[in-house]
Structures are given as C-alpha cells and as structure tokens.
C-alpha cells in the first residue's frame, strides 16, 4: 500500500512539474512558479490532491496603497501587491491521475 501511495504521488508531481509546466509555458508564454500560491492546496472536495505547492501563473496584479495612522499621529503609506493566480495541481487515485485547476 505504501509503495502504491508513493508511486501515485510521484506520478502526480512528475505530471504537474514536468508536462504541465512545459504546457503552460508553451500555451501562455510565461514560466509557471511553484510557490506563489503559498503552499499546498487543502481542499476537502479533492481529498486525493497531492500535497505539494501547485504551479501558478500570475494573471492580474496591481499595487494597492493604504494610509494608516501610527500611534504618534504620523500617517504611514503601505503598499500591497494584490492579484489573481491561475494554479494547477494533480489528484491521484488507484485508477486515475487528474489535473486540477484553481483560480485565487
């Protein structure tokens, strides 16, 4: 059982970080990045999802500036990068290996 689980996880990682990485680069012209989504996706509806950070491609990004008032009364400007990510991972079971796509 442990060997089967390891082979399924390895197959999923090879598909995501090998075949899908190349496909996303060819189709979109950008290099997908593995750690932009902030870690593995935990999704209750996809319990067979491999537990590695998905490949991600940034879609829309913008810088949002916020003004905050400090304790001494001074106003401070903070900038944050906000955007959307297109992410892809895989789920593996005894019968199939499926690619799963997410938008953040």
Describe the protein in words.
The protein has one helix at 2-28; strands spanning 55-69, 75-92, 97-103. It has one helix and three strands, in the order αβββ. A hairpin with a 5-residue loop joins β1 and β2 (75-92). Strands 1-2-3 form a three-stranded antiparallel sheet. Helices cover 26% and strands 38% of the residues. The protein is α+β, with helices and mostly antiparallel strands and 104 residues long. It is elongated, with a radius of gyration of 18 Å.
**Assembly state:** single chain
Shape assignment: elongated
Helix and strand composition category: alpha+beta
Radius of gyration: 18 Å
**What's the end-to-end separation, in Å?**
34 Å
How much of the polypeptide forms β-strand, as a percent range? 35-45%
Helix percentage: 25-40%
Descriptive key words:
104 residues; 3-stranded antiparallel beta sheet; elongated; 1 helix; single chain; 3 strands; alpha+beta
Produce a short descriptive summary.
Helix content is 26%, strand content 38%.
Present the secondary structure layout.
Blueprint: H1 2-28, E1 55-69, E2 75-92, E3 97-103
Antiparallel strand pairs: 1-2, 2-3
